[in-house]
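Hi all, posting the design record for the shared folder.

TITLE: backbone redesign
STEP: 1 of 1
STRUCTURE INPUT:
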């Protein structure tokens, strides 16, 4: 194809970053502190043939920039381009420039092409100081497209649901709807499906207030998965921080994909539902030091990534995915903040859950809650008002930081997850060998907001994001069916995933037709669901758990884009769905625990805001909290968030039914997890006893308070 001779690039401006059309031309700006030259490569409408290669003429404080005037109709939205960075190839010094590699603009809003793994994307190994074996990858490289689209948001308004009223629903865009019989086939698996009235009706009837979507940023599947015919279904392998993943859209054009996503957000907002995105800023899809050169590595490897101080040819791998993004660098920090602001301002999302968020708080001296990223977010007028959720760990030294994030942040509380799983599941079939750690004291601490983690730093109980199951691990149904992971389909000889996930299988691995086993498993699922929903903090339900979704014991199905992970609505457990709706409705109606810390001290009327009791009616105190063999306790909530009268929670995690002596008053049962749908008509007077079934709990309200 004949190469075009476009006009010479004008100096332009070093801002905004990326490519921006101003109505008269396009300004290009890209960061690289160590490049010696930067070229802009323009392509034809198919993105297959390079039609021009233009040096960016200006450099301002490590930003290379140039302006392409629209004198011949070329500099218009839709223009496809890439970058080539010239500089030294010195992996031993952290420099990996290779101008034979066409690089993706980190700020692009639209990525063109279908990525194909090829040797052309790779440069020599890190120990080689020569680039003689490298190949030009332009014909296969992903490329950027200039955008200038606008969306009619109408009267869209973010719901701004208070945390105390929030119930999150972790959901994979495709997995939720791919097998839904009442959503049109053409929409299934796409953003548009979540905006369909059937989906919205499910969310509203369930009672959730926010969808926490697994990654929707443009992501790649790792090479080893590609070679096995698998894909990275979850999407935790980001390449485009400003791009909507087209794999989850029915639309085919870039603007169509963005508009489909925006239409989804607008429809969910109209129904009062928030949209929270799971985002991955801890690593990129360029993998380890032998990975492909696609964007960041070729632009400025030593700035974008954390390198091994003893061997800069190697990466620090705090993510477990081969590399770690260097959030400490000002321009990398700017990239992340610009990306976050884009998703809030342009795409109207309501918050973020940050994967391996401890990476974002790493400084030269380890993790710090006052790291520059947290400080920048706290003062940002756009980001300071949204929901910010941390997965509070990474794989580096000192990476486990549950309880260590700044005020204003929620945290995935794995102490809640493990404590509640342990209390309800561990040794449930053989209680005489119960683990001493999973005792009543641990249960009460996790039930009441994990004060040991959050109270001292003046964070409210709602900052504890309580969950029992997430995308990462067994489903709730599998949790009570399997002791061992069944991950052979992942191609790693069943070595991947968590080996001990605090599960329980009644001695029967997998599905069972035994009525007693099925009843026990049902009791445990409902008891754990109720514990999570009613607990102090912010609950998160994993999509599908409300209807008994199972994955056949695969507890790491990140690469299973098939019925293993797609929710099977045809086999939905209607009783479990009704139970979950009932439990969540009670949370909204009563807010059993207040969003403030309890003192356990009586007021001047002799009423305790919160008190704990043994099943026999005596106060629970001293060493009794830590007796591993006793699995019963009662919690009298004198001051809840919304209930007009005291509430009573009776917990029986033992293998036999237990009678509980009731406090003064007349008590009406509101929830009984031993019942398939949770409803109960039990009434009992104070001073009398009420039998609570094995492996279950009951919530009661005092309807006649006797002082």
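Okay, here is what came back for every position:
SEQUENCE:
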């Amino acid at each position: 194809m004949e190469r075009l001779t476009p006009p010479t690039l004008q100096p332009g401006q070093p801002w905004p970053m990326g490519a921006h059309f101003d109505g008269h031309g396009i300004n290009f700006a890209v960061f690289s502190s160590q490049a010696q030259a930067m070229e802009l490569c323009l392509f034809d409408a198919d993105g297959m043939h390079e039609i021009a290669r233009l040096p960016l003429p200006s450099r301002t404080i490590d930003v290379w920039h140039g302006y392409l005037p629209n004198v011949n109709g070329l500099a218009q939205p839709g223009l496809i381009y890439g970058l080539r960075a010239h500089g030294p190839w010195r992996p031993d010094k952290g420099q990996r420039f290779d101008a034979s590699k066409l690089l993706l603009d980190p700020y692009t809003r639209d990525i063109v092409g279908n990525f194909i793994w090829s040797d052309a994307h790779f440069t020599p190994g890190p120990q080689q100081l020569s680039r003689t074996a490298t190949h030009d990858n332009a014909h296969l490289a992903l490329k950027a497209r200039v955008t200038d689209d606008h969306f009619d948001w109408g009267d869209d308004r973010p719901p701004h649901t208070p945390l105390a009223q929030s119930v999150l629903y972790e959901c994979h865009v495709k997995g939720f709807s791919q097998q839904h019989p009442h959503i049109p086939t053409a929409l299934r698996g796409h953003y548009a499906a979540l905006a369909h009235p059937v989906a919205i009706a499910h969310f509203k009837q369930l009672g959730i207030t926010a969808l926490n979507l697994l990654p929707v940023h443009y992501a790649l599947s790792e090479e080893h998965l590609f070679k096995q015919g698998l894909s990275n279904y979850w999407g935790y392998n980001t390449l485009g921080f400003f791009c909507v993943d087209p794999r989850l859209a029915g639309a085919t054009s870039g603007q169509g994909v963005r508009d489909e996503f925006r239409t989804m957000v607008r429809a969910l907002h109209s129904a009062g539902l928030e949209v929270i995105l799971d985002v991955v800023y801890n690593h990129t899809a360029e993998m380890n030091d032998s990975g492909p050169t696609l964007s960041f590595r070729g632009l400025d490897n030593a700035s974008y990534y954390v390198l091994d101080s003893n061997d800069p040819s190697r990466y620090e791998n705090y993510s477990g995915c081969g590399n770690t993004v260097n959030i400490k660098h000002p321009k990398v920090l700017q990239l992340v903040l610009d990306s976050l602001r884009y998703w809030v301002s342009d795409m109207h999302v309501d918050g973020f859950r940050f994967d391996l968020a401890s990476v974002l708080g790493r400084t030269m001296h380890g993790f710090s809650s006052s790291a520059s990223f947290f400080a920048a977010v706290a003062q940002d007028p756009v980001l300071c008002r949204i929901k910010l959720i941390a997965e509070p760990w990474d794989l580096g030294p000192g990476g486990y930081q549950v309880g260590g994030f700044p005020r204003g942040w929620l945290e995935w509380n794995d102490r809640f997850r493990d404590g509640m799983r342990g209390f309800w599941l561990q040794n449930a079939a053989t209680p005489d060998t119960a683990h001493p750690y999973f005792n009543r004291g641990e249960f009460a601490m996790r039930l009441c907001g994990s004060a040991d983690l959050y109270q001292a730093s003046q964070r409210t109980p709602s900052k504890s994001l309580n969950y029992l199951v997430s995308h990462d691990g067994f489903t709730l149904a599998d949790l009570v069916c399997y002791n061992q992971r069944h991950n052979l389909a992942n191609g790693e000889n069943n070595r991947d995933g968590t080996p001990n996930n605090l599960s329980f299988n009644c001695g029967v691995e997998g599905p069972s037709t035994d009525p007693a086993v099925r009843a026990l498993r049902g009791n445990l699922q409902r008891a754990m669901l109720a514990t999570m929903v009613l607990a102090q903090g912010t609950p998160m339900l994993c999509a599908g758990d409300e209807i008994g979704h199972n994955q056949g014991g695969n507890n790491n199905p990140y690469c299973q884009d098939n019925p293993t992970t797609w929710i099977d609505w045809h086999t939905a457990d209607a009783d479990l769905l009704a139970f979950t709706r009932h439990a969540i409705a009670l949370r909204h109606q009563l807010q059993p625990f207040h969003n403030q810390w309890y003192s356990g001290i009586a007021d001047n009327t002799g009423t305790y805001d919160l008190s704990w009791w043994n099943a026999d009616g005596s106060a629970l105190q001293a060493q009794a909290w830590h007796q591993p063999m006793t699995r019963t306790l009662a919690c009298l909530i004198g001051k809840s968030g919304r209930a007009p009268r005291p509430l009573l929670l009776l917990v029986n995690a033992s293998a036999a039914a237990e009678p509980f002596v009731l406090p003064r008053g007349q008590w009406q049962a509101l929830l009984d997890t031993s019942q398939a749908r949770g409803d109960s008509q039990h009434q009992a007077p104070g001073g009398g006893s009420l039998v609570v079934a094995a492996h279950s709990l009951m919530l009661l309200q005092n309807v006649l308070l006797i002082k």
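COMMENT: Residues 309 and 385 are 37 Å apart (CA to CA).
Let me know if anyone wants the other runs.
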